[in-house]
Amino acid sequence: MKNQPNAGNCQSLESSTQGQLSGQPKAPFRRSFRSVLATLAVILTAITLTNCAGLTNASSTGSADPATGVLSASATTVSFGSVPTGSTATQSLSVTNTGTASVAIAQATISGSGFTLMSGGAAATLAVGQSATVQVQFAPSSTAAATGNLVITSDASDATLTIALSGTGTQAGISVTPPSVAFGNVATGTTATQPITLKNTGTGNLTVSSESVTGAGLSVTNFTSQTLASNASMTFDAVFAPTSSGSISGSISVSTSLASSPTVISLSGTGTQAAISVTPSSVSFGNVVDDTSTSHTITLKNTGTANLVVSSEIVTGPGFTVTGFAAQTVAPNNSMTFNAVFAPTSAGAASGSISISTSLSGPPTTVALTGTGVQPAMSVTPSSINFGTVIDGTNNSQTITVKNTGTANLVVSSESVTGTGFSVSGFSAQTLTPNTSMTFNAVFAPSSAGNVTGGISLTTNASASPTPINLTGTGAAPTFVLGATPTTLTFGSVNVGNNSTLGVVLKNNGNSNITISGISGATGPFSASGVNAGTVLTPNQSITLSVTFTPTASGAASATIKVSSNSTTAPSISASGTGASTGSSVSLSWMPSSSSDVIGYNVYRGTISGGPYTKLNSSVIPLALDTDSAVSSGQTYYYVVTAVDSSNNESTDSNQAVASVP
DSSP letter at 531? Predict the structure, then answer.
């Protein structure tokens, strides 16, 4: 009877719970503070699996597969990269039993040129989960790329475990540029230098350790022992300094880390006797002002061992000449001198040369000559001036800067001025070197109203002389207008023995200074303060006049206060108030504003906390105190104060003060 197949259920239970925690917004704060909503979402997932039973078919009668060992390596390939020949590199890898039964390793073998098994090749048994370390070394003997294999044999399910090996041998190489040096003819007593470049043309480091030189008069400078990486270079100088005439040969031997070391560089040269040196070998005269001249001394020296015959000279180039030259024979190590002269006649660059004929073979000795003819130039800042409106009887001064923008000295010799009311101060004739400046002042002092034009003319040695500077301005008649705000002061009812102060802003509305000579009319219960005789107000300047009402008896009082000055208008302020019999009152004071533009304060009163409020004063109060005499017994009053500036702008309310009248 055949067995019917039994299928075990393979079930899984998966649950996912997602929760959300949200913060509720708080009530908004005052002044439009926004609430912040923060939401934190947390997702938790739990998964639980039940056992899964295997399936058997009708013909299965045996048990499950036996346990097996599985051998796994930490790397399937090992690359040593580039390794210089003659050196070694070592790498380690681990082999782990990842199966379910122990593994018996029979052996580990290695193949490939240059690869060696250093450790871990012996037979061993690895328990489940146990690891062993294998160490491999690469020692290339050539510059070719090398490959190989590490093979581990065991009784694991995969009886042979193979790990690929690779590496590349590197070796230094050398090139010499130039490979040999021919110095040619070199005069005795002088030296010739030839740079030599060594380059590592190989793939490994090249160690350059030392040098040695053979041959009379031959030497090396700037040589430094060093190690050159691949494609890197070093440079030193081969020097030939012959002490006698004749051909000389020699060599430089450079010791390196190459097997073919040393590297030899052939040297050759010929020492000669007659020679010439010219100091300087070229002359740059720089900038020279047209129609002037400058000279440089040139020295010819015989640097050879035989007489040098200097026979003649030829000069080329506009403006160039020679002085002090005489044909002569110069003994060894002796010198002769003459002068090169540049005298340009026009602006611009010039070039030329001096050719000196001597007994030396070859072309004449040449001294290059350069120079530039220059002229002075100038800039004036500003190039024109508009003084605007200037009050008759006063003056306005503007600074003018003259700068030498040329390459020659600028001579500023004189100035002349045209136009009624215009003049110059601080001017002095002087010479300005290139890029330097001088200053003076243009002045406008009108004596009558109206528009005026004129100019300043500067005389210099510049080609564009004279240089004009246009001047314009407007004379205006002086005006003296003094204004008062307000012109009426109403103090209302003030208890006898108390006082109330109101302010009047006096402002200069003219274009000239106003001098206040006195305040009159503040008599009886009225007094004035804050403005003294001799006070000067510049145009648009203002000052506050404080008027105080201090009744000594009940009843109405008034006064007309006048301000005397040089103004064409005489401000008059009407002041009135009523003295009240002594009763209840509220005295108010507050911290004054720190702003310099505040001219006074307004006081507001209400009978309900928070307002509305009614202004008590008819004009601004200049001082930080006030008295409210119009109060009733048993009543509570609420006060606020605002600050007022010279443009009658009013601040926001102060904090509220409370007073209860008994």
Answer: -
The reported pLDDT for the residue numbered 583 is 62
Strand order in the sheet with 657-660: 614-615, 598-606, 636-645, 657-660
* Distance from C-alpha of 342 to C-alpha of 355, rounded to nearest angstrom: 16
**Which residues are paired to 367 by β-bridges?**
354
Q: How big is the chain by its Cα radius of gyration, in Å?
A: 55
In the block, tokens 């035989």 appear at: 306
The pLDDT, as a whole number, for residue 582 is 52
pLDDT at 8: 33
pLDDT tens readout for residues 56-85: 222 333 333 568 999 999 998 999 988 888
Q: Could you give the CA distance from residue 462 to residue 440 in angstroms, rounded to a whole number?
A: 19
- Confidence label for 438 from pLDDT (cuts 50, 70 and 90): very high
Tell me which residue has tokens 């190690």: 227
C-alpha dihedral (422, 428, 434, 439), degrees to nearest 10 = -50
469-481 pLDDT, tens digit per residue, is 999 999 888 888 9
**Which of 10-19, 255-264, 590-599 shows the lowest mean pLDDT across its residues?**
10-19
Residues 6+ apart with CB under 8 A from 160: 151, 152, 153
Whole-number Å distance between alpha carbons of 192 and 237: 10
Sorted by where each starts, the structural domains of the chain and their CATH numbers stand as: 71-169 (2.60.40.10), 174-272 (2.60.40.10), 276-374 (2.60.40.10), 378-476 (2.60.40.10), 482-660 (2.60.40.10)
Name beta bridge partners: 561.
573
Task: Report the distance separating Cα 351 and Cα 328, nearest Å.
Answer: 27
- Cα distances from 337 to residues 306, 333, 535, in angstroms, run 19, 14, 82
Lowest mean pLDDT among 213-222, 453-462, 487-496, 555-564: 487-496
SS3 state at 581: coil
CA distance 494 to 629: 6
How far apart, in whole angstroms, are the C-alpha atoms of residue 589 and residue 610? 19
**Block residue for tokens 């001219």:** 599
pTM above 0.70, yes or no: no
